[in-house]
Structures are given as structure tokens and as C-alpha cells.
Amino acid sequence: MNDLPLMVRKWQAAWQALDPQAVAALYAPDGTHMSGVVRERLGKEDATLHGRDEVLGYATASARALESFRADILSVIAEGDDDTGRAAVEYLRILNGNDASPMRVMEAMEWRGGRITACRVFHF
Fold first, then answer.
1. DSSP labels for 20-57?
2. Where in the chain are the domains?
3. 77-93, pLDDT tens digit by residue?
4. In whole angstroms, what is the distance from residue 18 CA to residue 87 CA?
5. In this structure, are residues 33 and 119 in contact, taking their beta carbons and an 8 Å threshold?
6. Of 66, 80, 57, which Cα lies nearest the Cα of 18?
7. What does the alpha-carbon distance between residue 109 and residue 14 come to, in Å, rounded to a whole number?
8. Cβ neighbours of residue 98 under 8 Å, at least 6 residues apart?
9. Is 15 exposed, middle or buried (0-12, 13-18, 19+ CB in 10 A)?
10. Which helix (H) or strand (E) holds 15?
11. What is the per-residue pLDDT across 43-52, written as a single tens digit (0 to 9) for each?
12. Which SS3 state, helix, strand or coil, does residue 77 take?
């Protein structure tokens, strides 16, 4: 999918590299990230990360827990441009090379000033 929005390409590359610094750098200083995995991995009851430092902590914990992460993008609905926009990204999440057990995931992300301001993750 070469026609993916730049933010989606950056997000996919950072997570697939399991690079916590690159993941955190995608977020605005006050950006949020909500996911059930946040609750599982970090024990945060509201499942929400607030700001780059918390995103960095989560991405670091994820990188330590995983051997690999792959996001095979199925579809993207997006509007906006590289600076400001939003997208719904549906993908198959393959962890640790286990192609036999992909999980379907949808991420709704919004960005402004070229940084993610909000990301909500839904696992199916």
C-alpha cells in the first residue's frame, strides 16, 4: 500500500522496528494512546497513556516483551495531509513471527503538527 498517509507509514515502521524512541517521537507532547494492551502490560486501569514519556515506557515494555511485531495493513480510511489529519487503520497484528495466530486490530489515529494527538486501539 504505497498510497498510505505518511503518518501511517511512520507508525507502521516504528512499531515494526520495535523502536521505542521512534514510536514516542510520533506523538505530540500531550498525545494520548488508548489500548487494552496498555491495561495488560502496564496495569493502567483506564488503559490510556498520556504524553510521550508514558508512550515511551509502553513502547519500551512492548519491545522487551516481543521478538517481532508486524502490522499487515488491510485497509485505511484517511483524510487530511501530512501535517493534520486522521485515519482508521485496519491490520493483522503478527507477533513473534506467529503467522498462524494473527489478531485483527483497528487503530483510529489523529495527528496535528505532524504528531499523533490521539490513538485508540481496538483488538478483535
1. HHHHHHTEEEEEEEE-HHHHHHH--TT-EEEHHHHHHH
2. 6-123
3. 999 999 999 999 999 99
4. 22
5. yes
6. 66
7. 15
8. none
9. buried
10. helix 6-16
11. 999 999 999 9
12. strand
**Domain 6-123 belongs in CATH node 3.10.450.50:** yes
At which residue does the C-alpha cell 494473527 appear?
102
Distance CA 80, CA 61 (A): 32
Is the pTM value of this prediction over 0.85?
yes
Q: Do strands 115-123 and 27-34 pair parallel, antiparallel, or not at all (unpaired)?
A: parallel
How far apart are the C-alpha atoms of 75 and 52, rounded to whole Å? 27
**pLDDT class of 102 with cuts at 50, 70, 90:** very high
The residue assigned the cell 481496538 is 122
One-letter amino acid of 22: A
Distance CA 97, CA 119 (A): 25
Rounded Cα–Cα distance for residues 90 and 53 (Å): 26
Kindly tell me if the per-residue pLDDT of 3 is higher than 90. no
In Å, how far from its chain's centre is CA 47? Answer: 14
